[in-house]
Amino acid sequence: MSLLQIDNLQTHFFTSAGVVKAVDGVSYAVDRGEVLAVVGESGSGKSVTGLSVMGLIDAPGRVVGGAIRFDGREIAGLPNAEMRKLRGARIAMIFQDPMMTLNPVLRIDTQMVETILAHRAMSRSEAWALSRDTLGRVGIPSPDERMRAYPHQFSGGMRQRVAIAIALLNKPDLIIADEPTTALDVTIQAQILHLMQGLVEEERTALVWITHDLSVVAGFADRVAVMYAGEIVEEARTDDLIAAPRHPYTRGLIGSVPSRNLRGRRLAQIPGGAPPALNRPEGCRFAPRCAFCTEGCERPQELRDKVRCWRAAELPEYAEALA
Amino acid sequence: MVFVIRRLLQALFLGLVMSALVFAGIFAVGNPVDILIDPDATQAERARLIAQLGLDRPFHEQYFIFLGNLLQGDFGNSFVYNRPALTLILERMPATLELAFAAIVIAVVLGIPLGVYAGLRHGTPGSQAVMAGSILGFSVPNFWQAIMLIMVFSVMLGWFPVSGRGEVGTFLGIRSSLFTLNGLHHIALPAINLAIGHLALVIRLARSGTREVQAQDFIRFARAKGLSEPRIVLVHLLRNILIPIVTLVGMSFGGLIAFAVVTETIFAWPGMGKLIIDSIRMLDRPVVVAYLIVIVVIFIILNLLVDLLYSLIDPRIRLDEARQ
Amino acid sequence: MSVTDTQPPAAAPLIPRAQPPERPAARIIRDFARSPLALFGLALLLVIVLAALLAPWITPQNPYDLRSLSIMDSRLAPGEVGFSGVSFWLGSDGQGRDMFSAILYGLRISLMVGLIACTSALLIGLTLGLVAAYFGGRTDTVIMRLVDLHLSFPPILVALILLAILGRGLENIIVALIIVQWATFARMARATALSERGREYVEAAQSLGLSRIRILFGHLLPNCLPPLMVLYTVEIASAIALEATLSFLGVGLPATQPSLGLLISNGFQFVLSGQYWISVFPGIALLLLIVAINLVGDRLRDVLNPRNIT
């Protein structure tokens, strides 16, 4: 039994224009000490899946179906008071833009201490000391002073470190990181990745790493789930997925990452854009953009052998296709 | 510090300009001689009074005499009461200040919770009722609303006195009618009257601020930290929406003092506002001018206070100050 | 912001924007009509304006023709039949004047003062604002300093001072209202013009060698109008309210020009003895007028600002 297991999750938004099925039957699992990367373009539902686990879907959105089991307990549809005890304590979340996630008018220590006191019976001074130590652990120099600073006195990378420190405060079992490095410079990105990798190994925390950038994933995540238009289209061990992607969409994603072996070639790109959430194709949702689309693709696709493409087995090997 | 000094100099200049404008204006049109001196008076008597009041000097001389006196704290004697104009105004200032203060308290204490509620429960009937009420409060002309308050609560229900200021009590060396029951009983209606327009404004600001801040990532992050809803609203949200509200409250304190003219006239509240209206009607020039100078000073002080309050609430502004 | 914007904005980014092109005017009318409250406001406003315009033909008496008044009819309660057999549906005042007639005539004066003052203030403010924005530099500084100075004092105070100087009278109160309001328009006009000035069409016009005046009034002006129209609507309401307040205080219109404010003022003394109608009904008329204008203005603001449409 995995620490987090999502089964056939459905999260819909009931807008005036119609029902948007942002997450449409997503299943994945992640265990202690494991890193699962969820990859997809914006609007694929990867962030909404994460927010559904946190119970942070705002109206007009709602989790309408499926199960979210955390540590053997069903948490979908848990009353908000119960959910609140889990959030920030056993499940933590880190968001994309570190400029926006810290409250601009509160000092760092306030924002850290309150996170501890919301969950644990601890004196204010103990909580303060723990916060300072955690700030030191994420690599912030002279944490004693920095505790009394305001968010605007930190750089973007440093702010993301603060956000990570806040996520770590209560030693969560699971961290959901929603594109935590996207807004940062490439060098800072690498630092943050490295930091997270170390922390996860130390604490045996389960980590769900949501990103649109497949190149971040290699060498970092244990497994990858690729999402497209509200569904998972392929799931595999990271090395396998990168070496031999099976779904045409995954192939397209990998083909569009610049790399050393492909020097001198034109970068591949996936033609077109993701289908509008209110008007998706009836059959395979990727079909309109798929180079391998044939008769038969107008049927809805099921996830078979962890890939959502009925032709996956008969498509040419990825390596051959490249050559 | 440089900033503060520059602001003070600007303010001084402003005061000078205003005094000249007002003095010129009143001199140009009204003729206090006709009002102050009995039409049946003999020619000699007239001349004597004109000389005594300094009304025979050329315009610019009158202004410089006036300005010189002003700097010595002498604003001239009221033509009507024959007492120093500044004294008249300062005597009545506490009544006006306490009225404006009571109104601000009502507007903030009711307005912020109502506005935050309307923002958080956006689209619900409760929220719409609050907003409809605020549009109404915004639209009802102040003076008519005062008459309605008197009609309903004083004449028909008999709950509150029709007019006047109640007993004055002393607390911490401050004399105010807010410290006696009778005083509170008297101030209730005028304060509500003065507050309603601003209450509507505070509600609107609090609501739009709430909606804006609520959508921010840091509120979502605060939820993700597992904070309780009261903590999120009272600390994370409120601190962020306070900035525009503090500005409004600070700026509108001056507006309240100005609008107190209406409230004081209707409720016969013995403040500066009633004095100025009476003085305008009677062309009591020194009092009008002194009132304006006092008002300008109050405005300047208020603006400085608002700037200071700002930096207490928003750390980012403190930093900018330090850089200058 | 209005009480009617109930649609949830949260999921907007998920929905594709695929709207067919439409004429702006048609869109504005359609969007406006989507709010029942705004339509109600518009209808109310039309009724009030029509009633005021047609007052001489639809009122039972001319309240300022002394021959038609009878002191025997003074202070009749609403609905009572007067000495001459006429019904006074809204009662009568101290001089036996029919309140309904007096209110309609009062509305005429209030509306006229508000419209004349506001329109003039708009024209002055718009011109100065555009000039400040277009020429920039010292012109801009001088005009905007003046505006800032002006706006740092509450309107009622400025108006009081002016009337203290000018004295009561129809022309004087209009002048006072114009002086109170021009700065608001100037600031708004300048701000919009500044944001428009950087646009390509202005650069294009400049590169075509069009004259400054031509660019200013032919190109900048039309694009600055929508926000100014919203402000204009709302400012008419505040001009009317301010005039009523000043007249109530006895420093506004003279007794020969009985606007709504004066009617309310005349009735104030009778409120204490329970004869409420002399003050209450003109007040309700004033309130309805202001609410109607504000409802329309609020919706216009939402409709003309594309960011506010859900």
Summarize the structure.
In chain B, 78% of the residues lie in helices and 2% in strands. With 324 residues, chain B is mostly helical.
Structural class computed from helices and strand pairing of chain A: alpha/beta
What percentage of the residues of chain A does DSSP assign to strands (E)?
Answer: 15-25%
In N-to-C order, the SSE pattern of chain A is EEEHEEHEHHHHHEHEHEEHHH
State the oligomer. heterotrimer
Measured distance between first and last alpha carbons of chain C: 12 Å
Shape of chain C: elongated
Total helical elements of chain C:
11
How far is the first residue's CA from the last residue's CA of chain A?
Answer: 41 Å
Annotation, overall tally of beta strands of chain A: 10
Strand order of the largest sheet of chain A: 6-7-8-3-9-10
| Largest sheet report of chain A | 6 strands, mixed
Q: Helical amount among residues of chain A, as a percent range?
A: 25-40%
Q: Strand order across the biggest sheet of chain C? A: 1-2
Radius of gyration of chain C: 23 Å
Q: CATH superfamily name of chain C?
A: MetI-like
Structural class of chain C: mainly alpha
Textual characterization of the structure:
The complex is a heterotrimer of chains A (323), B (324) and C (310). By secondary structure, chain A is an alpha/beta fold. Chain A is 32% helix and 22% strand. Chain A has twelve helices and ten strands. In chain A, helix 4 crosses helix 5 (124-137), helix 5 packs across helix 7 and helix 7 (156-168) packs parallel to helix 8. The longest helix of chain A is centred in the middle third of the chain and has 18 residues, at 186-203. The radius of gyration of chain A is 21 Å and the shape is globular. The model of chain A has no long low-confidence stretch (mean pLDDT 85). Chain B has helices at 2-29, 32-36, 43-53, 59-71, 85-120, 125-139, 142-156, 181-214, 217-224, 229-267, 272-281, 285-313, 315-323; strands spanning 169-171, 174-176. A two-stranded antiparallel sheet of chain B has the order 1-2. Chain B contains 13 helices and two strands. Chain B has two domains: 2-71, no CATH class; 91-322, MetI-like (MetI-like fold), CATH 1.10.3720. In chain B, helix 7 crosses helix 10. In chain B, strand 1 (169-171) and strand 2 form a beta hairpin. In chain C, helix 9 runs parallel beside helix 10 (260-271) and helix 10 packs across helix 11. Chain C has a two-stranded antiparallel ribbon. Residues 1-19 of chain C have low confidence and may be disordered. Chains B and C meet through helix 1, helix 6, helix 7, helix 8 and helix 10 of B and helix 6, helix 9, helix 10 and helix 11 of C.
